[in-house]
Design the sequence.
């Protein structure tokens, strides 16, 4: 189809200059379907919810609950039913929170549909009619004007001064000219794609692709089919949950058989096995992680980073590469006149002489339209023409336009003829190589002097110098016309007025943000649909690269995966003129290298890469709905610098997760040791299962969350990103929790337990009844000691090396609220009738509390000594 003349194109699509008949359009609608994007079926919500209750971690808890209910059926009155219901509550909480954490509404498709126009003008039976976009079919002839969105992929039949904004689809910031000339496929200028819009001109085009068969539809398909990778945190939590659950189950089964060998009854062994499982499974881990991430999102929202996907908070902290879009992300997405060449000198726009004729050309030579909006009148059209017009310092008097010679790709210039008080004047602007050959003179300090070939060569050299800085350079010229006469060759003998250098300027905070990223060991790679020269100039200006290596989409298309992997070793790499699928390919290649990749973007073309990246970051102000719906994080202020603050928060999340994981795992040892002592030494069970749950799901929850709310350490952004394979629960953290802090807590708990029993006259080998007052007081003392030691532990876990008394700790009110809640819950458990009945406790005396309190500074002193040794290494 690419080389068919218009007549053959009508034949090929079975259409005509009058468009389709209504009856034929109805038949084609039935055959091709509506012009809209189709949704690819995903996993139903109820299945996703069901999965949260059937993963390995949940199955272990289901098994424990089932054993508890079975034990209650065989031996009623032992409190096993209460345990069963408590474990079911844990399963419900974990499942609901995890589902909410994973659930995201799939809005990308709806956003794509919303971006397409809703109505368009088409020819039916030779008459122009308004149609719903969904009613368009291949073969329809549509009419387009400046400001219209393109509703389907189509080929131009007629075009008058057509320029198209393709930024959303290609990332190209400069408007693209389109005409009816047929060219090779890679140079096509006669195609309009769905999702783009006309900046200027009028056009008639014939539709050849609709819906999912358009380029727009291809991006939609990539967006929907791109697999969302599990975040490093999700993978680590899954691994950790399975490891702990498997360890707890094997330990429970092992000690069940140990009890059998030692001669304990079946039911005593069963209680023991369930207790071991419950003691080692951190039931509060998943909801605590979720709530901690949710709190981090609130802090990030205050820094203008809106989180749509909770795990993305921590993933961003692990990011080792940020693939950034250029237009609208690193730049302001608006053209600005930055430099001018006038009267033989390069000057800023503010330094132009007041009488410079450049101002007249900028004010009158354009195709802009002034439209009324709620906020007032605005100019609509080519952003470059708007930038030129906005740079006019003193608005000249209004003049009437007599004629226009429109811009086209062959001439690369446009001219207007205006009726001024000085007579008819032609104003011209365009590419320097097109305008300069038409000039015979130049304006120099208020005078018009001849321009020879040497002068033209000098001007072209200046133009090259400006282009190397990334400027889009336009030549401005003018001439007076006779009141009557010449209708042809009007664009001759022009007077050169000057050169205008325009650029999409970078955001003010971007250079500092790039510098911070480099200090934090984060590599920033620009991936843009814009021109390589423009991208390289911007990279130098913002400090992204000194000597960038620019790779175009055409070159990338010819590369094998191996070549791309080798290319990614380049330290200062930029990708330009890239398509949507190529950007996604780059992201996936980086991921195969083990990088944690964050992608920023704002256009439709960025959506697939945003979705397949480890974390996608969309611009909230300039970003399309497509990009926002495909992203994990949205920058509310479109400021690249906000990413730096978000990365800092993300890194703090991982550190905080390790802190509270150490905190909650510490209590596993004093919960497990009583059961081991119960079996091995045949003593009364020091701690019941329901009391274990009181710690894991009660007193430990708020202090654990307080650790999750710790602010970033001052040196957070001065260290490199953590490795993708770094474990949340390292061996150092595990040994500290289990073999040091946990042992200290277990020693205190067991000492207090025996202190109460011995004080009440207990004899070794005697097994008191479950409702015996002395036994209830002893288990209460054991439980109280664990909770009291956890009060100290929350301060110890704030930092793995820094002293509790160090000033590096920032203020955290939530820790004090957590400690207060811990103490309050302990008092309610020990000294209220409902607490005694639910948890099997009994009030304890002052002597017991004095012993418990005596153990607290011992634990503090021992941990301070350990930290001092670690700091000296």
Sequence:
């Amino acid at each position: 189809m690419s080389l068919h003349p218009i007549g053959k194109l009508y034949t090929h699509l079975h259409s005509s200059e009058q468009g389709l008949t209504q009856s034929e359009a109805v038949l084609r609608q039935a055959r091709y379907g509506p012009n809209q994007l189709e949704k690819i079926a995903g996993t139903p919500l109820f299945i996703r919810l069901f999965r949260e209750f059937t993963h390995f971690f949940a199955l272990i808890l289901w098994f424990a609950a089932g054993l508890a209910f079975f034990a209650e059926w065989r031996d009623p009155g032992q409190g096993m039913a209460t345990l069963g219901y408590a474990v079911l509550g844990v399963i419900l909480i974990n499942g609901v929170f995890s589902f909410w954490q994973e659930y995201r509404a799939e809005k990308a498709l709806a956003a794509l549909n919303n971006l397409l126009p809703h109505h368009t003008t088409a020819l039916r039976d030779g008459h122009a009619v308004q149609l719903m976009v969904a009613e368009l079919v291949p073969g329809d002839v549509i009419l387009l004007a400046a400001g219209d969105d393109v509703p389907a992929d189509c080929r131009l039949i007629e075009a008058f001064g057509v320029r198209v904004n393709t930024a959303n689809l290609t990332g190209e910031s400069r408007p693209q000219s389109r005409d009816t000339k047929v060219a090779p496929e890679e140079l096509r200028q006669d195609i309009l794609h769905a999702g783009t819009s006309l900046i200027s001109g009028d056009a008639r085009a014939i539709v050849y692709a609709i819906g999912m068969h358009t380029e727009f539809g291809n991006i939609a398909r990539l967006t929907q089919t791109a697999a969302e990778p599990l975040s490093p945190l999700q993978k680590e939590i899954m691994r950790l949950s399975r490891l702990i659950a498997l360890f707890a189950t094997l330990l429970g089964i092992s000690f069940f058989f140990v009890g059998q060998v030692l001669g304990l009854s079946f039911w005593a062994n069963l209680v023991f096995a369930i207790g071991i499982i419950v003691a080692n499974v951190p039931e509060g881990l998943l909801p605590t992680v979720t709530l901690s991430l949710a709190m981090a999102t609130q802090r990030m929202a205050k820094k203008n980073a809106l989180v749509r996907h909770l795990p993305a908070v921590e993933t961003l902290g692990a990011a080792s590469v940020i693939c950034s879009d250029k237009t609208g992300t690193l730049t302001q997405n608006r053209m600005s006149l930055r430099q001018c060449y006038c009267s033989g000198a390069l000057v800023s726009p503010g330094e132009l002489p007041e009488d410079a004729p450049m101002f007249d050309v900028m004010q009158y030579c354009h195709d802009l339209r002034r439209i009324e909006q709620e906020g007032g009148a605005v100019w609509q059209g080519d952003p470059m023409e708007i930038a030129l017009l906005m740079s006019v310092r003193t608005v000249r008097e209004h003049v009437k336009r007599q004629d226009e010679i429109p811009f086209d790709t062959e001439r690369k210039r446009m001219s207007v003829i205006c009726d001024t008080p000085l007579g008819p004047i032609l104003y011209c602007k365009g590419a320097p190589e097109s305008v300069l050959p038409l000039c015979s003179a130049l304006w120099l300090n208020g005078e018009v002097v001849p321009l020879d070939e040497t002068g033209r060569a000098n001007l072209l050299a200046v133009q090259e110098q400006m282009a190397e800085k990334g400027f889009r350079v336009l030549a401005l010229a003018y001439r007076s016309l006779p009141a009557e006469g010449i209708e042809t060759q009007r664009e001759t003998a022009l007077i050169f007025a000057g050169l205008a250098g325009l650029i999409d300027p970078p955001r003010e905070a971007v250079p500092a943000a790039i510098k911070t990223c480099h200090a934090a060991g984060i590599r920033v790679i620009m991936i843009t649909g814009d021109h390589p020269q423009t991208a390289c100039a911007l990279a130098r200006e913002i400090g992204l690269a000194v000597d960038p290596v620019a790779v175009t989409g055409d070159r990338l298309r010819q590369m094998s995966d191996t070549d791309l992997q080798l290319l990614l070793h380049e330290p200062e790499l930029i990708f330009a003129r890239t398509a949507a699928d190529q950007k996604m390919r780059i992201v996936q290649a980086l991921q195969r290298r083990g990088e944690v990749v964050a992608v920023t973007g704002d256009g439709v073309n960025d959506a697939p890469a945003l979705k397949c990246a480890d974390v996608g970051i969309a611009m909230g102000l300039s970003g399309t709905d497509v990009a926002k719906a495909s992203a994990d994080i949205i920058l509310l202020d479109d400021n690249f610098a906000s990413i730096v603050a978000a990365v800092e928060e993300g890194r703090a999340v991982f550190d905080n997760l390790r802190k509270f994981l150490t905190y909650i795992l510490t209590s596993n040892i004093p919960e497990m040791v009583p059961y081991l002592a119960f079996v091995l030494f045949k003593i009364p069970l020091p701690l019941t299962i329901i009391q274990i749950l009181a710690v894991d799901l009660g007193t430990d929850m708020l202090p654990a969350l307080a650790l999750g709310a710790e602010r970033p350490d001052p040196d957070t952004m001065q260290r490199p990103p953590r490795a993708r394979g770094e474990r949340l629960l390292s061996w150092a953290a595990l040994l500290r929790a289990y073999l040091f802090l946990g042992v200290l807590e277990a020693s205190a708990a067991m000492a207090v337990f025996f202190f109460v029993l011995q004080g009440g006259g207990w004899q070794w080998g005697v097994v008191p009844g479950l409702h015996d007052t002395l036994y209830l007081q002893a288990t209460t003392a054991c439980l109280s000691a664990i909770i009291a030691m956890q009060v100290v532990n929350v301060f110890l876990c704030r930092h793995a090396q820094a002293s509790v008394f160090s000033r590096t700790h920032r203020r955290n009110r939530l820790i004090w609220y957590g400690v207060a809640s811990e103490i309050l819950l302990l008092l309610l458990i020990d000294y209220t009738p409902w607490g005694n009945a639910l948890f099997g406790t009994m009030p304890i005396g002052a002597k017991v509390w004095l012993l418990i309190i005596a153990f607290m500074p011992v634990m503090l002193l021992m941990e301070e000594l350990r930290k001092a040794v670690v700091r000296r290494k």
User: Anything to note?
Assistant: The chain has 32 helices and 26 strands. The two ends are 73 Å apart (CA to CA). The CA atoms of residues 71 and 793 lie 35 Å apart. Residues 667-873 form a domain with the Calcium-transporting ATPase, transmembrane domain fold (CATH 1.20.1110.10).
